[in-house]
Design a protein that fits this description.
287 residues, alpha+beta, D-amino Acid Aminotransferase, Chain A, domain 1, D-amino Acid Aminotransferase, Chain A, domain 2, 10-stranded mixed β-sheet, 7-stranded antiparallel β-sheet, 7 helices, binds N-(5'-phosphopyridoxyl)-D-alanine
């Protein structure tokens, strides 16, 4: 982690962070809060507007009063990058909790939200971008508001850890026979040249990378479909890939023991990876 963090409007040395979090913080007690992970390329924020849109939407859906305005967020994130003189590649983590209240399930809408942000160095995960990953199908036991980027990630954590210990990169969640998304990324399938992904509704997080890749696919004149994918379609797919902010577009070469495209990375996945890379500079916010 970089030296300075943003804590409720102040830039402080991360060494001083111990003791800042209150026992009464609802984020600490209930996971009652929201977050964003924003990619940084050479010190500039990628797709910042879309991330802020989603952050504010998540707060609204949970009835959390934003602690500061959107413009103030931009200003303070700029200060965080500036203080750290951060001009490299990384991830910016922003979190907002409902704030401090004596522990009770029923919240008081009046508390002042607590927020912080930090920067972590992160390099493009070249190996998996090149060679792809394996995923394992698991039952989706999450709640029915997966569209909210909530701190409450217990089902994801359990499924991700289970997948990891069984040699897989991520779980692939299936609910009611429909493929939803992965543990910390969105899922795409390619069939007969069409790029297919789950519709943006309460069953999935509407990933910013997902939105961006759909846009890039359209620019490449690839037919795009946002529709439910039956579990059986996994085994006849031409290509599969996952998308997430830190990872970009990662090919999926195996689903459990099944080899996708004979275990080789597909042509359309490569095309989208290339376009993604080329387009990064168009969507950067430089302070
Ligand atoms: N996770 N679906 C889930 C459940 C996720 O947790 C994420 C991202 C995504 C992809 O969203 P985006 O393209 O906006 O990063 C989809 C982040 C990276 C995390 O929890 O660390």
């Amino acid at each position: 982690m970089e030296k300075y963090i943003l804590w409720n409007g102040d830039i402080i040395d991360s060494k001083e962070k111990d003791g800042l979090i209150s026992f009464d913080d609802r984020g600490y007690q209930f996971g009652d809060g929201v977050y964003e992970v924003i990619r940084i390329y050479k010190g500039a924020l990628h797709l910042l507007d879309l991330h802020l849109d989603r952050l504010f939407r998540s707060m609204k859906e949970l009835n959390i009063t934003p602690p500061i305005s959107r413009e103030q967020f931009i200003d303070e994130l700029g200060k965080l990058i500036g203080h750290n003189q951060f001009d490299q590649d990384g991830n910016l983590y922003v979190q907002v909790t409902r704030g401090l209240q004596p522990r009770a399930h029923i919240y008081n809408p009046g508390s002042k939200a607590v927020y912080y942000a930090k920067i972590d160095h992160f390099q493009k995960p070249v190996e998996i971008l090149q060679n792809g990953v394996s995923v394992t199908v698991q039952e989706d036991i999450r709640w029915l508001r997966c569209d909210i980027k909530s701190l409450n990630l217990l089902p994801n954590i359990m499924a991700m850890t289970n997948a990891y210990h069984n040699g897989f990169y991520e779980p692939l969640f299936v609910r009611d026979g429909i493929v939803r998304e992965c543990g910390a990324s969105n899922f795409f399938l390619v069939k007969d040249g069409k790029v297919i992904t789950h519709p943006a509704n309460h069953f999935i997080l509407n990933g910013i990378t997902r939105l961006h890749v759909l846009r890039l696919a359209k620019e490449l004149n690839l037919p795009v479909e946002e529709r439910e994918i039956d579990r059986n379609e996994l085994y006849t797919a031409d290509e599969c890939f996952l998308t997430a902010t830190p990872l970009e577009v990662v090919p999926i070469t195996h689903i459990d023991e099944h080899k996708v495209n004979g275990g080789e990375v597909g042509r359309i996945t490569r095309k989208l990876q290339k376009r993604y890379e080329q387009s990064i500079s168009n969507d950067l916010y430089t302070f």
